[in-house]
Amino acid sequence: MIKKLAYSFGAVATALSYQAFSTYIIFFYVDVIKLPAYLAAIGMIIFAVWNAVNDPIAGYVSDITHTRWGRRIPYLAAGAIPFGIIFFLLWVPPFRGLEQVSLLFLYFVIAICLFDGLYTVTILNWASLYPEMYPSLKERAQVNAYRQSFGMLGLVFGIALPPLIYSHWGWNWMGAIFGVVISLALLTALWGSRENKKFSQERSLGLWQALKATFKNRSFMTFVISNLFVQYSFLIILATIPFFAKYVLDQNPVGTSLILASAFLAAIPMLFVWERAAVKYGAKITFMASMLFLAVFLVPLFFAKSFGAVLLTSVLIGSSLAGFILVSDVIISDIIDEDELNTGTRREGIFFGTNALITRFAIGLQAASMSTIFILSGYSPYVFTQPHGFEAGLRILIAGFPIAALALGFGVMMLYPLGGKKLEELRSKLAEVHAQKGIA
Predict the structure, then answer these.
(1) Which CATH number characterizes residue 69's domain?
(2) What are 295-349's pLDDT values in tens digits?
């Protein structure tokens, strides 16, 4: 149990680092350090391209690594402390935009790309250990409940704590404190990790062969397309809440924080309820049920006008989100098991990396949806009282588009083949293959 909790504690580093980065990095460099906004935008475009390509590449490199310590653990061990250091360096640029714009821009681009590179190296390899370490559905559901609970806490802390720290002690102390926590969380996860050396001694697929096998995998492509719709729903709900709270509910930022916090805090205990459902009914049914519940719980947002009603709805939404947060990695783990039977080798890295690559498109879909509604409804950031059509547009964004996306994701997930007897047969065959390999 202690080892499981230690491994799961790595989720604190995952959520804390990326949430603080994505929430505050632009504000810090543009508003505090005075990097021109257009240069910040160019830097983030470079970052987005780098972010898209490094996940599957890092996953493939991890899969073909052969060392006496294994495939994943060397990267986790090597990256834990440097990742904390680069997070700290994000918040202590030696240049200022008013006098040293070019140098600041260069520092910004290098720092954010190094951050994402080290994030990928450490977190992808940490995540890739999960299917191998916990082969049964019961253990996978249990450990992922621990992981996502820690992840929820890291996410809330990543949003809520930075203003409290930088307003009292400065941005450098925020970077230092979070950097230490990130490295300690990863080192704790390293202590709780183990790896079967036999997997790192197996033959590896060539790059083209590996990509071809990944994209031809029906189970993976079905799930990842469904997951893309789910991630889009998640992102657009979160991005719309601040606008909804301000322009529909007439709430200040504290009210917005309460709505967001209620969803995430409600999700933590519900992870363990969904864990029981996953063990009893399977990951596929649980994933689809969570989509159905979320779609139903979004309906009140078409009509709700009071803060209390939206707060209650937020709790229900968080309870539903916990379902597919819990089982997404369980489903990918089943896909990796199936792939081992097909290819003869375990390739956790490239599957987690490619899933990250494809679901990144949800960010673009979210941005396109919001910009379209804002333009069509006549939104202006310079006035508080928006056109009457803007409220209707916000309700479409926070409920209409997500419900439509969830319906599409549900339909695609019905075609996902790994469930019921087929999954039981897969696990039985895999146990035989592992016995032949001498793997316990």
Answers:
(1) 1.20.1250.20
(2) 999 999 999 989 999 999 999 999 998 898 889 888 998 998 888 888 888 888 8
* Orientation angle between helical segments 388-395 and 361-377, nearest 10 degrees: 160
Query: 256 and 381 in one domain?
Result: yes
Structural domain harbouring 326: 206-440
Entry pTM = 0.82
**Domain boundary, last residue among 150, 183, 201:** 201
> How many angstroms separate the Cα of 62 from the Cα of each of 59, 122, 199, 347?
5, 11, 12, 9
Asked if 280 and 182 sit in the same domain, the reply is no
How far apart are the C-alpha atoms of 156 and 136, rounded to whole Å?
30
**152 and 33, same structural domain?**
yes
Q: What is the pLDDT of residues 373-425, one digit of tens each?
A: 888 888 776 667 778 888 899 899 999 999 999 999 999 999 999 888 888 88
Q: Which two tokens stand for residue 287?
A: 């994933």
- 165 and 101 co-located in one domain: yes
Q: Write 373-380 long-range contacts (CB < 8 A, 24+).
A: 373/397
Residues contacting residue 75 through CB under 8 Å, at least 6 positions apart: 62, 65, 121, 122, 125
